[in-house]
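pasting for ref
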Amino acid sequence: MKIAIEAQRIFRDNKHGMDFVALECIRELQKIDKVNEYYILVGGGPDRGVLSETPNFHIIEIKVPSYPLWEQIGIPIAINKIKPDLLHCTSNTAPFCINTPLLLTLHDIIFLEKRKTISKSVYQNLGWYYRKLVVPRAIRNSERIITVSDFEAKRIKDRLDLPDSKISYIYNGFGKHFHKIGDHCGVTSKYISAKNYFFFLGNTDPKKNTENVLKAYGIYLEKSLCKAPLLIADLKESHIDSILMKLNLRHIKSNMVICDYIPNKDLPYIFSGALLFLYPSLRESFGIPILESMACGTPVITSNTSAMPEIAGDAALLVDPYSPESIAEGILKIETDENLRKELINSGNERIKLFSWEKTATELLKIYKNIVNHEMV
């Protein structure tokens, strides 16, 4: 088989969820498949060391200035030259005009659902409108659609009235460098001086629920005797300041440390040093940080909605993400109940055994073969 894989953003410095999923899947495919020919379609970026060519894996850089042009013009030009048996688009969208059989990874359909809140990020808003325009057509053009959880597969199928044969799910994995690190202070001290802290990994997307997390942390500070500081990553201080002012919570800022982007290589140290990890999103199709935290031996507080209970199982403390009181209660439970902490840590160590990028890539290769050989799943 000749397989083309769209991986536009894997060489950029500040990679996020979908970028890591594409990158890790490609790395594992390199390990397990020495027979088929792969063409990895990438954009520019400085982080080229994350992926190297091998005899049957070729990196094709497409130099087009903007993502819509890259996808709608750059990919079709590259596909006409490569003439693959299959194109796998990994990040929700796909080109309109290609004749090659298309496999689409549709991580979620949030952009087809009613917006409860609007992001302040122009980039995120433009992306939302672009996906809303492109995805329905990409779905019609796809031979098969894969997503990342049973929850999301059912939601996509029902929302778009798709037959069972057109959609399936493959769980994500987590990086092997995520494990418990005892001597973590050398790295964590670059970000926070305190040895005991809570960790929240957010961004400007409203679904990350930053406002309710800050409200919950304010309630926690009122009730706790320990008052552990909160380390916040992936958010600018100006963004947090505006929320604190809006919520009349500026007084809690002295208990917080706010970072922008934390490199992925440092995250295992950050997780390992944290007393607990806060991930009470309003909506997730999977939630890789849940597994990363568990792998580092850190208790997780996550939401009782969407795919998060499916991924976390009984190894996390589930809370109502719309209730700051519920989130605060969860924090206080883990802080004060040592038996609960140990139970969550032990359950997390068992839960992560169900997930790996090797399993993800193996299932993905089966689907490649099914599509190229015109077989039903």
